[in-house]
Amino acid sequence: MFDTLRTYWTENPGSLLRLGGAVVLFAVVYLISRLVRHKLLPWAQKRVDRRKNRLPGILLKGFSKPLPVLIWVLGLYAALFFLPLPDAWLDELLRWALRLLRIALIGLLAWGLIGSSDIAPMMVQNVQGKLDVEVDKTAAAFINKILKIVVICFAVVMVLGEMNFDVNGLLAGFGLAGLTVSLAAKESATNLFSGLILITEKPFSLGDWIQTGTVEGSVEDIGFRSTRVRTLDGSLVTVPNSQLCADNIVNATQRTLRMLRFTLGVTYDTPRATIESLMEELRTMLSAREDVDSSTVRVRLTGFSASSIDILVQCAVKTPDLAVFLATQEQINLEILDIMQRQGAEFAFPSQTVYMKQE
């Protein structure tokens, strides 16, 4: 092979010039691709971001990385024409290079479309505005994932076609294999349909704080098979969608109130008048607070325990936020301490009275 090249270069004095031209062409195209990526595209992105129509900006952002690579690949392909090679070798090289170029174009197009998948939320917003259909960000994210998978599948099929694979036979094989896998993967199919139910019924959205029988935390992602929940200690818990659908879900984000409920125990030697005055002052204190729903205030004597007279204290705090609720609860507890001291009442604690029988 090297002898053939040496003979060809000896018989063609312009071979070195052609090789230099190929190198220079590739270098120029590479510099152009760098200029496009670092100068032209950022400038164009700023211009299109000012427009009300977000579609050009999303497409430009999605293709900002594939476009310079496309310029680089086209420059490399063009440089091959200048290589000082025998005609038969050059024709064979260009034939393979053309096939690789088509595969690269398919991959770059898929790369750009995946990067532009934010079009899905924009389309959802347009549908929501024109057809009065309520679609939240969770459904938009789910549609986004589906579009990415569709683009990847089409790209893989097109690449296999360029590589002369029997795509029809391959798809038929995938169909039979898919049927077999679906029969064996009943649980995965259940999780998939459960995920669709979570998207359509919307018991919670991304970012909501939920509580189930097994997990409590903020929803970070709703996937095809499972949902990821970030707990209070920072752990990321993955819960199968079928388990979520079968469980009771408490969405703390959607509530407007937090219920405060506890039992206040006073000693048995507390006079009735003191207990009545204590309960009345507790009702007045809770009803007067602006952060408490006065219609939910309940202060009642509910029973007699082994060591205390039990007074139920109940009210709803006007906040869904846990930190604000805890701060309000602290203030209420401190005020209860002051009221108990003013009324001369004492907190009960578990105790026993022992009577000694004398004979």
User: With helices defined by DSSP (H or I, 4 residues minimum), what is the helix count?
Assistant: 12
Q: How are the strands ordered across the major sheet?
A: 4-3-2-1-5
Spans of 5+ residues with little confidence (pLDDT < 50)? none
Radius of gyration: 36 Å
Order of helices and strands: HHHHHHHHHEEEEHEEHEEH
Mean of the pLDDT scores? 79
Main beta sheet: strand number and arrangement? Answer: 5 strands, antiparallel
- State the end-to-end CA separation: 124 Å
For this structure, the quaternary state is: single chain
Number of strands: 8
Shape: elongated
Walk me through this protein's architecture:
The chain has 359 residues and is α+β, with helices and mostly antiparallel strands. The model has no long low-confidence stretch (mean pLDDT 79). The relative contact order is 0.06.
Layout of helices and strands:
Elements: H1 2-11, H2 15-49, H3 55-62, H4 66-80, H5 87-115, H6 119-131, H7 137-162, H8 167-184, H9 186-201, E1 209-211, E2 216-222, E3 226-231, E4 236-240, H10 241-246, E5 250-251, E6 258-266, H11 272-288, E7 292-304, E8 309-317, H12 322-343
